């Protein structure tokens, strides 16, 4: 279904099963307008006279043609077998990837306000391209424009793990008890979500209406409609809460909120650290959305969204507590060339990684078997070829570094197959996968590559990897995964 | 006034990608530097990089000193460089790649800009040993840094 068309045309939906079973078994079918006013998954829905149905649905699953509201919900994931968070993230990435770590990623300065620094600090802030992220006062117009035009995936639209949005339609249909004429109310709206890593386990959700439509004998401009997110227990860990209430306005009020840069309502979603797991105190929380009339909610969105909150001390300093949107996969991007065609400042490392990922058999150390080196970003991503972070100076890191050293110096088991030397002046030995990964040189299940690269490129690439781990909040081992994407140009 | 030593701490740790990181306690983001300058140290907001000469596994020794004013020169070091840092809060320590504290904190004085003096020895010897076929591992602390900071 064409998303833009559906947004323009309006739409809506909710828990289909709940809707259908909500019809009393004894109710007499009511002859309604032809064509039917509501069609769910291709099936006309009879709404008894005097009754209403309502719900919310991602806009890409709904279409209003002026007479009939067509809803094609993807199914209730809470009724299906629960996918683990990593699998969900891969599905999300497949449908709505984002360019993490990419210079193409604009700085959402209004969305991720930098720390307050004086002009005197300019010398020292040039390199501080992002500081700990926290929600803005309201979404910027740049983000609103981006979300308006972006293609929504299975779990919405991602700017990063910390900035998310999704378009929704809230709908309500009432069949008049006497005339049996339908009344239809549609409220298109967009949710904007902001994770944070400034030491609080919170996500802030904003909502702004984009279109309000109402027709029929049973609606009034003063009708009160409310919106609210909620935590759901299925597939989640405990500790999630939305302490703020439903945000309610009249239809007139919601319509008045559409124009301009304001008109947002917001909620906080919080995560209780004491209910987290393991050393990182990690929690996975699912949130859903709802609309209700006069303070009553009959159904929640059938799509849910996964948050991950943690208190990992190795994301140190002020960032030891955080929540992010988890339904997308991080990847670090290295470019071979700058936009002007000149050699990038990570050129040699990018070139080495590209060779390792695409022509592993020509890399050192040579192997008698076809080499398999993981970490290549593809879409769809390959769950069997991920990279997972390990601790600096931990046992895996140390073993990886020692194995790399032997391969670079043609020692030990790599006496005949290791990297030929000596290096040219200004070169260093680079290894891939990174020493900071489970899949590094000492991993017996994977192969690796070493190559002589420019030392400045090596330093720059290493610094970018450290920054990537911190900015994208990559947790150790199977708590996270990431890929490497080598591109021609920034 | 004569310079007074406010605090000192030392530790040994392996550089990662040739880098050792010293931080102010309020550090947040990595500093962006141009490595083509081939410096031994780079300073920025609440962060200082010390650059090793070798990319191979070895432990380097770091001694961090905080002074009230410029300390007297010291001898016996092969290299010396200077840079600046800004401390949001007057405490520093050697960081394990921003994943853990590799040394105790030392007090430095008031928040503000600090002069940084870095002495080093053994950087080139460590690299030479890395390529010596007779040497299995680079011995610990061949590469040594002395970092001295005082307020500007």
TrEMBL record, chain B:
This is Uncharacterized protein. It comes from Nonomuraea endophytica.
